[in-house]
Amino acid sequence: MLSNGFRLSIVVELMVPGDGIARCWDVGDRPDPKSYILSHTAQQANSSMLHGIKDLDRDPIAGPAQAPDSLPVIDIAELLLDSTSLASRPVIDDIAAACRRWGFFQAVNHGIPDALLARVREKTHAFFDLPIDAKLKVLRSHDNPWGFYHKELTKNQRDRKQVFDFTRAGTDPIYQSSNRWPEQPGEFKPVMEEYFKACTNLSLQLLEAFSIGLGLPPHFMHADFEKNHTGFMRLNYYPVHDPIEGVESEQQQEADLGIHHHSDAGALTLLVQDDVSGLQVHRNGYWYDILPVEGAIVVNTGDMMQVWSNDIYHAPVHRVLAMSERARYSVPFFFNPAAEARVSPLPSVVNEQNPARYRPINWGEYRGRRSAGDYADYGAEVQISQFRN
């Protein structure tokens, strides 16, 4: 465990549709994305497997027979110094090998200082330790999604957790609303804003690796993020007991999981988790634990990255188990494009044999529709599959 109390891991999920196996390729022998052709029928079968099964949460948890070896831990320092340098090539090769076997890996030396992470952990615990009345003063709503919430839905099922969400300073362009900051704990806002900036910088560096992997210049996708991204930060608290147990609520159905299965809507997610396990990724009909690893951060790709890559990268389905013995805390940063971004397959991954599989998606509209389901059951959640050609 780090001195700040967090066990951090960076997990990157890149899944090749068609066989349900997560993988990517070495930089040294990386194929031209234009020649990376996948059967449309096979892709549809994989989409049905990940998103069409009625309840993936009932699938079994992988045991030793399904996960006989541990995930690789990769030092990404050289990659972050210069993604195009010769020194970064072995790092990218190691990442590619991990992606071919697992689709995710654990990375250390991600550049976010331990001291900052310690302060984030301290303020996260202090906020959720406040009396419920204090947290309800910054209660978020359907009209303003920034602030505290304790009745969130995923896939129209209530999660057993409390959250606090915030985004960039000012009025956000999707909801036309601003952050709600609590009066306590002290120094909460400046600490969180400093961490938000650090995660933004790391996410931009990771975008370079994704661009290179798609046969594009490192900064190709930066224009949709660098100055006007709509990313947001979430503080998660997973208590042992149901946070609204015994409280009359229209969302009083049983909360049997910390978060029910889902894919993330945006481009990338960076997750800081503590030493209490619970995060799981779905693959080949099983749920695989992503165990905390000292000195690492956990990253996964989202829906928009899957669209940009024309299904070369795949948004992983994941969940968090309900806590039974110890509370769990985590801090995900969702790196999302500009509100006005129109997301469609990139030119390097489209050709006559492999045409664009998605119609353009207006990110601001997609995000707004996706988040509406956090508050009430409005029917089927919007998915990128609805934009398939």
Note the topology.
Elements: E1 7-8, E2 15-16, E3 21-22, H1 40-52, E4 73-75, H2 77-81, H3 89-101, E5 106-108, H4 114-128, H5 132-136, E6 147-149, E7 153-154, E8 157-158, E9 162-167, H6 188-213, E10 232-238, E11 257-262, E12 268-273, E13 279-283, E14 286-289, E15 296-301, H7 303-308, E16 318-321, E17 328-335, E18 342-343, E19 361-362, H8 363-372
Parallel strand pairs: 4-5
Antiparallel strand pairs: 1-12, 2-3, 5-15, 6-9, 7-8, 9-10, 10-17, 11-16, 12-15, 12-17, 13-14, 13-16, 18-19
Query: How many beta strands in the DSSP annotation?
Result: 19
**Major sheet size, sense and barrel closure:** 9 strands, mixed
Number of helices: 8
Give the overall pLDDT as a whole number: 81
- CATH architecture heading: Sandwich
Global geometry? globular
Bin the helical content: 10-25%
CATH superfamily: B-lactam Antibiotic, Isopenicillin N Synthase, Chain
**Spatial separation of the terminal alpha carbons:** 47 Å
Unreliable runs, pLDDT <50, ≥5 residues? 7-53
Instruction: Give the amount of beta strand, in percent.
Output: 15-25%
* SSE pattern, N- to C-terminal: EEEHEHHEHHEEEEHEEEEEEHEEEEH
Structural class: alpha+beta
* Count of structural domains: 1
CATH classification, class level: Mainly Beta
Oligomer kind: single chain
CATH topology grouping: Jelly Rolls
Radius of gyration: 20 Å
Describe the structure.
The chain has one domain: Jelly Rolls (Sandwich). α4 (114-128) crosses α6. The protein has eight helices and 19 strands. It has helices spanning 40-52, 77-81, 89-101, 114-128, 132-136, 188-213, 303-308, 363-372; strands at residues 7-8, 15-16, 21-22, 73-75, 106-108, 147-149, 153-154, 157-158, 162-167, 232-238, 257-262, 268-273, 279-283, 286-289, 296-301, 318-321, 328-335, 342-343, 361-362. β7 and β8 form a beta hairpin.
